[in-house]
Write a structure and sequence with these properties.
AttH-like fold; globular; about 375 residues; 13-stranded antiparallel β-sheet; mainly beta; 3 helices
Length: about 375
């Protein structure tokens, strides 16, 4: 394919000026609508919450029909609730096909039918999902400041070929209280911990990415967010990473240029037919006296989805004919954080979740020009 195209995190002074954002000072206006629903664009606002009774809720606001990047604007809200016994309900609401999602200009206020995600003056977010039989209302109060890697943009290619992928983390960690009404029965959900981020771009994800891992966890007094993104072969299967570690309400390390990853326990997943890594280690070596190591140890899969499920039957058939097989796994397991700082070492372990998003169809991993075989 010739010389790989350039791919980088936009974090130079010129990048901050170009995107009109301030280094290390994320603002609520960055969580507003960034796209116009045109072909080739995508955008979504993601939220999750895990409550003290074992209930988990995920609500995602899409500017389109889920991940149908090539399709028209089609505001969609996906709602998923899982009870502590594993019983899961997944439903959705859609607005008018062809209509750009409704959004305010100065702070997040995204509205789709009777559903919305809204920033409030005290810094909290109000999330509502409502359909004919379910109403979910959640207040998410921030415990960690807003964050983004660099300017919030990764850039792929140059000039007219440049593609963009954006990421803004409005709530790295939030305290969540909610009510949930299903089929006439009302429940109060309290003591929750939650998260909200926002992604957008001007290119199909399968053009940029081969696969990524993304995860977050609250471990002891720390909150961590990581991503390990492997690009398409046109970018040399380059690895781009992000890392954020907060202690209490302060971010203590987030320089992705020093982040390293190690994977092990790699095998072929029985449902995706592609590789899965049972253990992932993220290493943030700041100095000889400061290091953060995050270990993700997979114990079970929470959810598997073929991303072809959300496109039209014709597009699904065409994709299958040419071997396209995008998949998504939500994974549960142990997250261990080891902190070496000020001459001391501390280790904390907490159950957490992470995801594997896989746009490629390759069975074995290729990272920066090296293909790794997997014992089957």
């Amino acid at each position: 394919m010739g010389t790989p195209q350039i791919a980088r995190l936009a974090d130079s002074d010129a990048d901050f000026e170009r995107f009109n954002v301030v280094r290390n000072r994320p603002a609520p206006r960055e969580d507003t609508l960034r796209t116009n629903g045109s072909k080739g664009s995508f955008e979504w606002w993601y939220t999750d919450a895990a409550f003290e009774d074992g209930t988990t809720v995920v609500v995602i606001f899409f500017a389109k029909n889920y991940f149908d990047v090539s399709g028209p604007a089609w505001p969609t809200v996906d709602f998923e609730v899982t009870n502590k016994n594993g019983e899961r309900v997944n439903v959705f609401v859609q607005g008018e096909k062809g209509r750009v999602v409704s959004s305010a200009k100065n702070a997040c206020d995204v509205r789709i039918e009777d559903c919305f995600i809204r920033w409030q003056e005290d810094g909290s977010y109000h999330v509502r999902y409502k359909d004919a039989s379910i109403t979910y209302d959640a207040i998410m109060r921030p415990k960690v400041p807003m964050w983004r890697p660099g300017s919030g943009y990764w850039l792929y290619g140059e000039g007219k070929r440049e593609k963009q992928f954006g990421w803004f983390v409005a709530l790295p960690e939030a305290i969540v209280d909610a009510t949930l009404s299903m089929d006439g029965a009302m429940r109060t959900l309290s003591g929750g911990h939650g998260y909200h981020d926002h992604n957008w771009g001007n290119v199909s994800l399968d053009y940029i990415f081969n696969h990524w891992y993304w995860g977050r966890a609250k471990v002891g007094e720390y909150n961590v967010i990581i991503s390990d993104m492997i690009l398409h072969k046109r970018y040399g299967n380059k690895r781009l990473m992000s890392f954020m570690c907060a202690q209490g309400d302060a971010i203590v390390s987030d320089d992705s240029h020093i982040t390293k990853a190690e994977r092990s326990g790699t095998r072929i997943h029985p449902k995706t037919g592609k590789f899965i890594d049972d253990s992932i280690k993220i290493i943030q070596h700041v100095s000889d006296d400061e290091e953060y190591v995050i270990s993700l140890d997979r114990k079970y899969d929470i959810m598997y989805r073929s991303l072809l499920e959300v496109v039209s039957p014709l597009k699904r058939k065409l994709a299958q004919m040419v071997g396209i097989n995008p998949t998504y796994l939500r994974i549960g397991g142990d997250v261990t954080l080891t902190v070496k700082k000020d001459g001391k070492v501390e280790t904390h372990t907490q159950e957490g979740l992470w995801e594997q998003y896989f746009t490629g169809s390759n069975k074995y991993p290729t990272i920066e020009g090296v293909t790794y075989k997997v014992d089957e």
